[in-house]
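[Meeting: bench + compute handoff]

Bench side (C.D.) handed over the final construct sequence. Compute side (W.E.) agreed to return the predicted structure before the next meeting so the bench team could plan truncations. Sequence as handed over:
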Amino acid sequence: MPAIQIEEPVIEPLTLAEAKAFLRVEHTADDDLIGALIEAARCEVEAATRRALITQGFRIVLDCWPKSGRVVSPVSPLRSVTAARVRDIDGNASNLNLAIFTLDTVSSPGVIEFDRGLVPEPGQTIAGIEIEITAGYGESAASVPEPLRQAMRLLIARYYENRDKIESDKLPGAVAALIAPYRVVSL
């Protein structure tokens, strides 16, 4: 069950000035490039860790409610459920009362729990349930753990210095070591 991003972060975990200082770039000719590299580095760290660094909105789509009464969030750290809908046989959505959900935002990955007796079964057999969540460390760069920000710096430097070469998909050892404690693994 993948998460579909529906709301992008409003800021990046590193500013252009921070990235340029790390790269020791004093001119403005590469500002657009470095800005794009910041976003690319954030996306790579998020993909490798299955964590949203800055608060973002996601949609989880299900065919049916899990028998366990639990939905494991595909993105961490889970912050809130902002909407939930069930579609009838004609595809019309009915909003659910969010009070029926209990969140475990401490575990990683986070868990959305519900009482199966309180959720209506969808009439639409494919993608009949939508749960919208927010996930991320917070609204500011200061809320992102420093090792993840450092991993971004190293990736930005790698991208910047090797922009004319095709690199392997493997993360550099230092980056992998920095993000290892933050990886959310699935079994």
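W.E. noted at the follow-up: The mean pLDDT is 93. C.D. will use this when planning the next construct.
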